[in-house]
Every structure is written in structure tokens, then in C-alpha cells.
């Protein structure tokens, strides 16, 4: 019972942290603001997450769990049709996408606490995308690229579309544009 209550409280803190980071960015977010949002003191929050960096990494890991439906599915278990569904899902939750994108942008600096998380995550995602492409096309896509060559391009399209959509959602239909990209992947080169 106490463990379940502790897990519920932890989930509540993660949701609040995500909101605060979405509103203020990582650098502008404080443990105090997160604690206040969930009715804790900052010291009480430190019981669950000993540092701001630990809270940030937990938020990012939780976001990845949401993307996999909490199934613990590895990036290697994705299929292209599921990626299309993920893009559709992301289009329904701009706050989550905005927070992720802002943290990703901030993490490119050497000292950012999420840099290691994103570096590791992208290595796994590229590997997973290559596996998804290999499952769909074998050792070569219709255009001749290997799955390993195409995987970083697939990831770049997904993330790039998110940025464009966040900046101008009225002009960029993220799900439709991603489906267009998948159509390009499926085409054979002209003779």
C-alpha cells in the first residue's frame, strides 16, 4: 500500500515537473516550483528525486515510456506503421513535444545534464530504426540505402517535423508530412 502510494506520488511529481519545464524550460524550472505544484516542500521532493538532474532524467525516461505505451518496448521493436501512429499521437500532445524539443535543444551544450541521456537515447533510436527498416525492406531500401544509412535520416525527419510543426502548426501537418516521407522510402529509384 505504501509502495503504491509512493509510486503514485512519484508519477504526480513527474507530471508536475514536465509542466514546469514546459512553461519555464529546464534552466528556468526549479525544484521549489515543482514541489509547490504537488503540495510538497522542496525537502519533501528531494526524498523522491535527490537532484534536479535526477528529476530531469526521470521526466525524459517517463516520456519515452509514454511513447512505447508503457510496454517497455525497445526501440528495436518498432515497425514503420507504429512510427506513423507515434507521429499521430505526438500531434495530439503539443506540450509534451514542446518540452522534449526544448530539452533536446538545450542538451547540445557540454554541461547540460540531459546530454548523456539524449546521446544514449539517439544511439538506441538509430539502432531501433535500422531494425525497423530492415524488418520492412531487408538489407536495402528501394532507393538502395542500407537500413543503417537510412535510420539517421528517418530520425531527423521525425524530429525536424516536430520543430516545424511546433513553430507553425497551421502550415505543417506533421502526420501527413511523415506519411509522405514513408511514401518516399517505399519508392524504387527511377530507371
UniProtKB/TrEMBL annotation:
Keywords: DNA-binding, Repressor, Transcription, Transcription regulation
Record domain HTH tetR-type: where: 7-67
DNA-binding region per UniProt: 30-49
This protein's record includes keyword DNA damage: no
Keyword Lyase belongs to the record: no
Domain of life where this protein originates: Bacteria
InterPro entries: BetI_C, Homeodomain-like_sf, HTH-type_TetR-like_transc_reg, HTH_TetR, Tet_transcr_reg_TetR-rel_C_sf
Pfam family, one: TetR_C_6
Gene3D superfamilies per UniProt: Tetracycline Repressor, domain 2 (1.10.357.10)
Species: Streptomyces chryseus
Name of the protein in its database record: TetR family transcriptional regulator
Amino acid at each position: 500500500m505504501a509502495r503504491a502510494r509512493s509510486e503514485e506520488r512519484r508519477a504526480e511529481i513527474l507530471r508536475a515537473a514536465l509542466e514546469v519545464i514546459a512553461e519555464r524550460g529546464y534552466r528556468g524550472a526549479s525544484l521549489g516550483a515543482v514541489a509547490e505544484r504537488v503540495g510538497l516542500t522542496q525537502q519533501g521532493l528531494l526524498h523522491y528525486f535527490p537532484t534536479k538532474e535526477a528529476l530531469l532524467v526521470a521526466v525524459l525516461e517517463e516520456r519515452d515510456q509514454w511513447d512505447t505505451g508503457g510496454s517497455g518496448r525497445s526501440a528495436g521493436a518498432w515497425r514503420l506503421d507504429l512510427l506513423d501512429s507515434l507521429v499521430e499521437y505526438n500531434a495530439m500532445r503539443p506540450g509534451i513535444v514542446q518540452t522534449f524539443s526544448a530539452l533536446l535543444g538545450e542538451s547540445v551544450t557540454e554541461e547540460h545534464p540531459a546530454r548523456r541521456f539524449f546521446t544514449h537515447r539517439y544511439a538506441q533510436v538509430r539502432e531501433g530504426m535500422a531494425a525497423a527498416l530492415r524488418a520492412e525492406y531487408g538489407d536495402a531500401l528501394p532507393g538502395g540505402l542500407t537500413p543503417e544509412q537510412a535510420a539517421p535520416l528517418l530520425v531527423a525527419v521525425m524530429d525536424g517535423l516536430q520543430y516545424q510543426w511546433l513553430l507553425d502548426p497551421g502550415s505543417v501537418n506533421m502526420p501527413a508530412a511523415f506519411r509522405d516521407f514513408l511514401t518516399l522510402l517505399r519508392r524504387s529509384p527511377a530507371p
